[in-house]
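Quick illustration, no need to memorize.
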Amino acid sequence: MNKELKTIIVKALKEDIPTIDVSSHYLFQDEISEGKFIAKEAGVISGIDICEEVFATIDPDTKFTIHKNNGDVVKIGDIIAECKGKTKSILMSERVGLNFLQRMSGIASLTKKFVDETKGFDTVILDTRKTTPLLRMLEKRAVVDGGATNHRMNLSEMVMLKDNHIKAAKSLTDAVNKVRQNVGKNMKIEVEVEDLDKFKEALASSADIIMLDNMSNSLMSECVLLNKKQKVLEASGNMTVDRIKLVCQTGVDTISVGGLTHSYTSLDISLKF
């Protein structure tokens, strides 16, 4: 496990146990317990390795056995993992381990629902930067476990000129030209457009990707026809599971869904002795 992930886990445990666990510390010594992580609803598992690392950080002697790996689909009652070790160590690890596992599995489960709607199409589901501060790495990993693809990880990875960039610049064309002169040909540039005129301007620019933001399905279809596969087209804005199939039918290449990492519900998972 890389240093950044380890740091996140250590900080999460420090938040939960600033000094000692006063509930377990005075109740147990070296007693041994066994526990099972049980899925209480159907979904996709993500973060089981993070959960395991939480337990190992508290007590390296805790035995942690994984039965369902990241990306695996589970049904109600499935045993995801088992643990055996000192009772107090398991109790100290439980909440933080489950917090990571439940939230990441919730993201993966929601992501799979969107991805399932793209079957039969070449359209790719993307995430966004609408993530919990400092937890982006984990949340974007969960998106991948759900079958989708990560968009840019940060502002340094790729150029994206959104509406405020363009409004603050002289024009879309000027903004693209100025950035292109500085970043060169190897870095991708994406521009956001909301109407047909701006789309045509973006199409004539040196941008690589055009985001069709909050467009109707019919307008997106028109843009696809005009594009003639010249640039990558990304649909964005108010994307729901019910709408995905219709958006795929427009012929866009990708669909970005902010809700994957900001509107998910944690998967219900319990640890039972």
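DSSP finds eleven helices and twelve strands in the chain.
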